[in-house]
Design goal:
6 helices, Alpha-lytic protease prodomain-like
């Protein structure tokens, strides 16, 4: 028979699954929306944000896998996979931002991109907060760490949104990749903390 503590834990685990499935679903839809927006606007930033959505899908899949089992070894492997996701995100942002700045590429305006990134920034912030609370209550480092991936996803959406708005309203095409450099630092720091923490 389940104890009250076991029942509460199962509720938290179900909430963790729900948060991850919501993130997964949002990003699957996002890849389609971003592909359409990036193609019509010829926007490197929107195409890059679509790649970020793929990384977030991978991170959510890792957490779903980890929540389905138990054991410290499973948690360590899941954390390593999330750390790899952070590292890939940092490399992607660094390469994309540098390439866009160096090439002087100027995307067209994208109302679809502006709308999607604005809503995504809000949704990802809410999901990240839910993962942080649930991960803390479960004492689950994998869910907490993946919540930080979701935070970066929300920050990146806000940075892309700012870049799209500055490009549309003021013609400042460099604003989007410049904001990306801030996120390179954040993602690299998270990956470093995961791998150094393991040692």
């Amino acid at each position: 028979m389940a104890t009250p503590g076991d029942a509460a834990r199962q509720t938290l685990i179900r909430r963790g699954f729900a948060l991850e499935y919501a993130t997964l679903g949002w990003n699957v839809i996002g890849i389609v929306v971003l592909a359409v927006a990036a193609t019509s606007a010829r926007s490197v930033a929107l195409a890059g944000f679509g790649l970020d959505s793929l990384i977030e899908i991978g991170a959510s899949a890792v957490v779903i896998w980890e929540l389905s089992g138990t054991g410290e070894d499973r948690q360590r492997r899941a954390l390593r996979l999330v750390g790899v996701g952070f590292a890939l995100l940092a490399v992607y942002l660094l390469v994309q931002s540098t390439w866009v700045l160096a090439s002087g590429f100027r995307p067209h305006h994208s109302l679809l991109g502006i709308g999607w990134t604005a809503v995504t920034a809000t949704v990802m912030s809410a999901l990240a907060a839910g993962k942080a609370r649930t991960g803390t209550a479960l004492d689950n480092p994998v869910l907490k760490t993946e919540g930080r991936v979701t935070t970066i996803d929300g920050l990146l959406a806000a940075a892309v949104l700012l870049g799209l708005l500055l490009n549309s309203l003021a013609g400042l095409s460099w604003a989007d990749p410049a904001a990306g450099y801030v996120l390179v630092y954040y993602a690299a720091r998270e990956a470093r903390e995961i791998f150094l923490g393991e040692r």
